[in-house]
Amino acid sequence: MTETQRRLLLVAMPWLAMAGLLILWELACIVFDVPEILAPRPTRIFEVMVLRWDILLKYCLETLWTTAIGFVLAIGFGVLLGLAVGASPFVYSGLYPLLIAFNAVPKVAIVPILMIWLGVGALPAIITAFVISFFPIVVNVATGLATIEPEMRDVMRSLGASQWEILTKVGVPRAMPYLFASLKVAVTLAFIGSVISETVGGNRGIGFLMLSAGARNDSATTFAGLFAIAIMGVLMYAACALVERRMTRWAFRGEIVG
Amino acid sequence: MQASPGSPLVELRKVSLAYGSGPSRMLALEDATLDIAKGEFIAVVGPSGCGKSTLMKLVTGLLPPTGGEVRVHGQPVKGPIRGVGMAFQAPTLMPWRTTRDNILLPLEVVEPHKRRFRRNKAEYIERVEKLLASVGLGGFGDKFPWQLSGGMQQRSSLCRALVHEPEILMLDEPFGALDAFTREELWGVMQALWLERRFTAVLVTHDLREAVYLADTVYVMSRRPGRIVKVSKIELPRPRTLETTFTAEFVDIVHDLRERIHMEHA
Prior knowledge:
The complex is a heterodimer of chains A (258) and B (266). By secondary structure, chain A is mainly α.
């Protein structure tokens, strides 16, 4: 295999793997004669996606919108809290157990509470996306700060740097790659959050579409919704990965970025 | 803060340091007394774990002593003192900054440069370029540290320690992680910088040849708890070269020091 072929194959691998999986699924449905209501064939799902693209797109955009707002809130709040937790041992020892406890609570359990407080609509979805996705951001930013090399700290202190200068000149740039790594995880979680909220109780978004299609025994549309969520998730992940590489080239040591 | 003429720049008087407390209390340094004159280059050698680095942190005020007193300029040290440059075994450069920006760091932090940094940036950049050229790194300012070899990173680290023209330079095994050839080359670089600028330098090392090559005075420390067990004035003429390290005089001094340290391991 030549070097060019090798590289082409590397690029093609994700598509080949996906195609393989779908073909397997299609064949399994045909061979075992699976009724559409249980598991529609992928070709049938794509057919529905093409036929009902306008409805899918409308609901997708609603979900995308709530996810994006929740995610942006999570970044803002997560970065601030992460900086505080990472910079101050007092904030760390005070808040960390609370954060762990909070993270252990299944977020699906708080959606009904949010419904009681806020009613149906976009707001519960935004808040669910926010609460489910800020935790990894806090942990990563705090880790980035807490793992500053002691020597680096000594260099700064011997120069007479204040705590604030150590934070801004060493801590924050050092925490950046940790932050961007966490964003990839957080954005996927934010999607899960808003779809959970839409599914538990809502009148909008792709989660609601899937729920109502399921209620009408319209499996093909339900699965089309699933596919749409997966596609949005991958796109958002890719966007975050792109930003990550742009912003923290040094953390990749120039290897990945050609 | 002017010291009276003739008095040493740094004075350690029966300085002790213990880490921890209660049963886990560990004495790292005991009754260290030494003077460092302005412009003197001293080296501290000893078996590993003898509190050499502790001594360094005490002089710079990064650690407060548990006993005795540290004075700089005749004033007791109560916190990190200003105007110190530090270089460690690890280059500790910031990977997100170019080499030039790394070396500019002290000028962004230390007064009075901090105040005029924005206005005089061009002048400071010129200063960095000159310093880089003097350690053989001319034209490498735009490179990131991770694009440089280990020896080049260590040279950059020395530049960062010196750029704000500190009165005291602290060197904690700065050449320890380098191969023998690069290390010996950097001894020459270090000596040239010192001959030109005459800062006061404290070098912590376990390489006896390095200590004798660079220092005016070598202090030998005992095993933990570290005490100063031998002081050696090195009277060899400067500039010393690699040739010097093969002369009988040089070898004798190294031999004496080694024997004293071996006694610690016996």
